[in-house]
Amino acid sequence: MLKDPVKTKNDIVRWIREYFEANGPQCDAVIGISGGKDSSVTAALLTEALGKDRVVGVLMPNGVQSDISDSQEIVSLLGIRSVTVNIKAGVDGLAGAINESLAGSGIPGVESLSRDSMINMPPRLRMSTLYAIAQALPRGGRVVNTCNRSEDHIGYSTKYGDAAGDFSPLCNLLVHEVIQIGEVLGLPERLTRKTPSDGLSGMSDEDKIGFTYACLDHYVLTGECPDQAIREKIDRMHRLNLHKLQLMPGFKLDGQDQTSN
To answer: CA within 20 to 30 Å of 59's CA: 183, 236, 252, 257, which one?
Structure first.
């Protein structure tokens, strides 16, 4: 648990202001609003840091989104500008074009997109949507990453999808700490404690990963996990997904400074 969640909230707000002062003093913040705790808490932090007139929330249902009213609620509560972009036509169009090409490609064992490919396509199109809107804004925009430390630790995100962004206010907060910040901000408990789901696979996050966030948070903080199988699974997921958190490696010519880009 955060020792002083009020101080942490204030520190994040100050950090956001400092980021924009250095990386776009006049720019707006652009955030995908899913209606879950991470986007709700981040949107509230942005609003406090920059003012409601500099935050643009983007709702991106893929067809019919059963809980889109939660997204609409946080936008209304904060009083921020918003736009809704239904990405279904884009997902269906791209998937259809790829499947048609794969079917005639002659590549052994590949005739269509895999289930995981289809699950990860919407987050990548959503990130493309956020950057397109950010670039279209008169003052320009900076896209916020809403991933938390718990998700990042096990790689529970889509590379170049929700794992992307220009800055990341929650990346060092575990799930239970994000909830604490939401409480300090006075957000509705039904949003901050909403059962997390990717909205793609039809399963809750915890059902999909096979353990609770409480278990994960405790293990990350203390190194303690009484269930050996879960401990080994967390370690394996962390090891296999480290590439999502690291900068893209680049080949260096002989004599180049290995620390330079």
So the answer is: 183
Domains identified in the chain and CATH numbers: 5-195 (3.40.50.620)
Task: Specify the pTM.
Answer: 0.92
Q: Which residues of the chain have pLDDT under 50?
A: none
